Amino acid sequence: MLPEDIIDDIENTEEPQLPEDENPDNPKDHSGYKVPLKEGENQLHLSGMYQNWFLDYASYVILERAVPHISDGLKPVQRRILHSMKRMDDGRYNKVANVIGHTMQFHPHGDASIGDALVQLGQKDLLVDCQGNWGNVLTGDGAAAPRYIEARLSKFALEVLFNPKTTEWKPSYDGRNKEPITLPVKFPLLLTQGVEGIAVGLSSKILPHNFNEVCDASISHLRGEEFTLYPDFQTGGYIDVSRYNDGERGGAVKVRAKISKLDNKTLVITDTPFGRTTSSLVESILKANDKGKIKIKKVDDITAQNVEIQIHLAAGVSSDKTIDALYAFTDCEISISPNCCVIEDNKPHFITVSEVLRYTTDNTLLLLRKELEIQKNELEESLHFASLEKIFIEERIYKDKGFENAENMDAAVEHIDKRLIPFSKLFFREVTKDDILRLMEIKMGRILKFNSDKANDLIARYKADIEEIEHNIENIVDYTISWFVMLKDKYGKNYQRMTEIRSFDTIEATKVVEANEKLYINREEGFIGTSLKKDEFVCNCSDIDDIILFFKDGKYKIVKVSEKMFVGKNVLYLNVFKRNDNRTIYNVVYRNGKAGLHYIKRFAVKGITRDKEYDVTQGDAGSRIVYFTANPNGEAETIRVILKPKPRQKILVFEKDFSDIAIKGRQSMGNLLTKAEVHKISLKQKGGSTLGGRKVWFDPDVLRLNYDGRGNYLGEFHSDDLILVVTEAGDFYTTNFDSSNHYESGIVRIEKFKANKNWTAILFDADQGYVYLKRFELESSVKKQSILGENSDSKLLLLTDTVYPRIKVTFGGHDSFREAIDIDADSFIAVKGFKAKGKRLSTYEIKEVEELEPLRFPDPEPEEENANDDSADIVDDRTDTDIIDEITGQQKLDFD
Fold it and tell me: Which of 110, 164, 308, 551 is a plausible cystine mate for 555, CB 3.0–4.6 Å?
C-alpha cells in the first residue's frame, strides 16, 4: 500500500500530451514521445517519479513495518503496542479493543494490523498476560473479537522491557505524542520470540529459541565461552539442526511431527511441525491419501489442550512404512529456511543468531550499567541533601539572626551559604542556590521531629547503597551474569524445551510410497504401463517409481512409470528399480554375437541414467541372453547346461553353480561358460545368498536400524533372524531387521533374538504389592506381550541376561534397619515361562535392588565343526543315450 502523499501526487499529475507537429526542439521522454513544455516550466518524467517513490516506499516498509530492530527485537507495531500497554498499565486487565484504540495514536495503520500483532504477541506466552479466548496455535483457531478478550503486560515484560530513564524518544507520526525509538530491553528477546516479516525485496525469518538456553548462552558469552543455540518451538515435535548454519541465510532445518503407534492399525500424532496446525496437517494427510501415496481408512482430529490426531490404517498396510510415508509425502515433515535479517544503524543486515545474541547480551550489559549509574547519581543527590539537612537543622542555622533578619531572599541564601562553608567537606558536591532554596522549604514540623540518630542511619544507608552500586559497576560482567541467572531462576521453569533435537535419516520417497498402481505389459505390441489392465500383470508399483527393463538382445534401461509407454516387443524382464541396491543380483548367461561363445556373469545395477540404454553383453551384433534371473538377496542357483551333440564331443551336459562366479560390475564381460553350442539351459537347483549375513546397527538417536555402522552393533543377521525389543513398561516383541522399522522410546534391551536364552527379571507386582523375582525364556512374537502381567501399575525394576545372576536387596521404610541380603537367582527359582508370577523376594519393604558381579560362569560352548562340504560334486547318473534321447525329443530353441 502506497503512502497517501504519494497517491495524491499520482492523482494530481497531468498526463503529458502528444505534440501535434514534429518539432525537433521539443524534448522526448524515454518512450520517444515528445513532451511540450510551457515557458518557465521544468520537465518532470513520470517514470523517474515512480522510481523514487518506489524506493521511498520500499525503505519505509523495511524500516518501519516488516523487519525487527536488533536492539529490542521488535517490529514497530509490536513496540507501539507494548508502549501503549505500559502507559495503560495499572495491574488489571484491559480490553484488547481499548489497547488497540490506545495504540492507534502511535501507529499510522489501521486497527486490524494492531489487533493481529497483539494476538501473535499473546500467543507466544512471554510478554502479554492473556485472558479469554486468544485462539490456539495448535489447531489454528482464531482469537475472539477484541471486545471480548483482555490483556495486560506480563511480570517478565515489566521487569525487562521498560525504563523511561534509559529510553530514547521520538515524536509520533502526527507529532502529538512521543514514542520510543527502541525499548530498553535487557534480554535477547528477538531470539526467544522469533519473528517473521516480508518487506519489499527482502524478508526476515528468525526462529524462536528456548528461554533457558538463551540465558545460558548469554552467560557463556559474558564469560568468554563458546555457545550454540538451536530453535525450540511451542508446537514441539522433532528438529534436525545439522544444516541450521547458525540461523544465517542459506541454512535450513527439518522439523517433524511426533508420530507413535497406538497399535498396529492406528498411528497417533502428538506434536505438529512449527508453522503447521492440526487442520493443515490433516488436510495434507488426506491429500496424500487421495493421491495414493499412503493408504488410510480415516483420520480423527481429537485435539483439545494437547495435539492428538489418530490415523487409522487400511487393512494390510505396514505401520512402519506408513510413518516414513507420512514424513515423505505430508506436512508431518517440513523444511524451514531461516533468514536472520535485522535493522541496525537504520539499515537491514543479514547476520547469524550468535551475532544477535552477542549484540543483545552486550546491549543488556550497557543498559544495566546505565541504570546503575542513574541509580548512583540519584542516591548521591539524596545523600547530598540528607547531609545538608542534617547540618542545617543540627546547627540551628534557621535560628541565626542573620537568617531571621535578612532583608530579602538573596540575603538569606547568602547567609546560609556562608554558614555551610565550614562543613563543605561533609557534602558530596558544592552547595548550589537550588540546594539552599530547597532547605528553606523544610517545614517546621519536620524540624521539630528531626532525629539525629535516624539522620545518621539514613546517611549510612545511602553510602552503603552507593558503595554496592559502585562495586556492581566495577564488576559489571558478573552483575550481568547474575541478572541472567535471576531471570532463568525466576521465569525459566515455565519454558522447558518442547522440541526434541534429533538427526533425521533421509527417507527415499520411492521406498516408502504406497504401491498404489499396478504395472502391466503387452508383449505382442510392446507396451508397458499402469492403464493396460487387460494385459499381463507384472507387479505393484507407485506413480513415482522407476522401472528397469532387460531385453532379449542384452540391452537394458530404466524408465519412469507411466500409464502407457512403448518399449519394444523383445522384453525379457521388468520390475521396479531400486537405486543404490547392492543386494539385488542379476545372474545372466549370454551368447556373444550371432554364433559366438557363451559367457556367464553376476552383477548388480546400483544406479544408471534414466532412459539411457546399457548392454549386458559385449555389444556384438546378434548377441542374446539365454538365461536370466533377478535375485533380491544375492541368491546363486545351479543351472544345467545341455549342449548340441557333435562328433567327438564327450560331454553333452554339465552343471554350473552361480556361487562360483564373482559378483562384478555391470559392464564386466563375465566368465567363459562354454565354447560349444548350447542347446538348452535350465534350473537345476535353487541356492542361498552368497552375500552372507547382514550386519545391523541400532541408532538410539533416531530409534532406527541401519546397515551403515551408526549406533550400537547388534550382530550379523541372516534371513531367519529376528530383533528382540524389551521396553521399560515390561513389554517385549520381535521384528525383522528391516531398516524401515520404527521403534518407540523407552527401550531397555534391543538385540538379536535367541530362543533358548535365560532372562532374570525383578518386578513390583501391583496386584500383590510385593517385589518378585522370575526367570524365564522369551518367545518370538510380533504382538507385544508383557513380562509383568495384566496390571498396568506393575513395574519392571531390573532385567538381566546373566546366566547366574546375583541380586543385592536393600530394605527401606520401617525395615531400613535390616541388613541388605544377596540372592543367587539360579538357586532361588527355576526357569519358567515368561507369564509365570515368579517368587516373592521378601515380605519386608524393599528400597532398592541391584545386580552384583556373578560368582560363577557357564562353561564355554564347543566350536561347531563346519558341516557343509562344498567339495562334493553333483553326479549325473544318466547315460549319453538318455541325454541324446532327451535332446531329440525336445523342441529346439531358436537362438538366431
Answer: 551
Classified as helix, coil or strand, 134 is: coil
**Integer Cα distance of 421 and 477 in angstroms:** 41
Q: Alpha-carbon distance 546 to 890, whole Å?
A: 39
Which CATH number characterizes residue 272's domain? 3.30.1360.40
Q: Per-residue confidence at 47, pLDDT binned at 50, 70, 90? A: low
Q: Determine whether 148 is an active site residue.
A: yes
User: In terms of C-beta distances under 8 Å and separation of at least 24 residues, what long-range contacts does 435-439 make, across chains too?
Assistant: 435/384, 435/385, 435/388, 437/413, 438/385, 439/388, 439/389, 439/392
Enumerate residues 6+ apart whose C-beta is below 8 A from 362. none
Give the Cα separation of 663 and 679 in Å (integer).
Answer: 26
Note whether 582 and 677 are same-domain residues. Answer: yes
Answer yes or no: is 22 within a domain: yes
Contact 274, 233 (CB under 8 A): yes
pLDDT at 690 (0 to 100):
84
**Are the beta carbons of 276 and 263 closer than 8 angstroms?**
no
Q: Residue 45: which pLDDT band, with cuts at 50, 70 and 90?
A: low
* Active-site entry in 148, 495, 586, 743: 148
pLDDT digits (tens, 9 = 90+) for 433-483: 898 888 888 888 888 888 889 999 999 999 999 999 999 999 999 999 999
Are residues 679 and 586 located together in one domain of the fold? Answer: yes
366-396 residue pLDDT tens: 999 999 999 999 999 999 999 999 998 888 8
The residue from 336, 359, 383 where one domain ends is 336
pLDDT digits (tens, 9 = 90+) for 849-894: 999 998 888 877 655 444 444 333 334 444 454 544 444 443 333 3
Domain end point (choices 292, 309, 336): 336
Helix (H/G/I), strand (E/B), else coil: 641: strand
Residue 289 lies in domain = 253-336
What are the cell numbers at 687?
541356492
Which of the listed ranges 151-165, 534-548, 727-741, 813-827 does the model predict with the highest average pLDDT?
151-165
Q: Is residue 517 part of a domain?
A: no
Q: Is 194 helix (H, G, I), strand (E, B) or coil?
A: coil
Looking at the fold, whether 582 and 661 belong to one and the same domain comes out as: yes
- What's the pLDDT at 521? 95
| Number of compact structural domains in the chain | 4
Q: Is residue 515 part of a domain?
A: no
Residue of 111, 112, 109, 114 lying closest to 4 (CA atoms): 109
pLDDT on residue 282: 95
Q: Which residues contact 57 (CB under 8 A, 6 or more apart)?
A: 2, 3, 6, 200
Contact 755, 777 (CB under 8 A): yes
DSSP 108: S
Same domain, 845 and 758: yes
Between helix 433-440 and helix 409-420 the angle, nearest 10°, is: 100
**Same structural domain for residues 679 and 762?**
no
Q: Kindly report the number of other CB atoms within 10 A of residue 13's CB atom.
A: 11
| Domain annotation covers residue 765 | yes
Asked if pLDDT for residue 15 goes beyond 80, the answer is no
Mean pLDDT of 573-585: 89
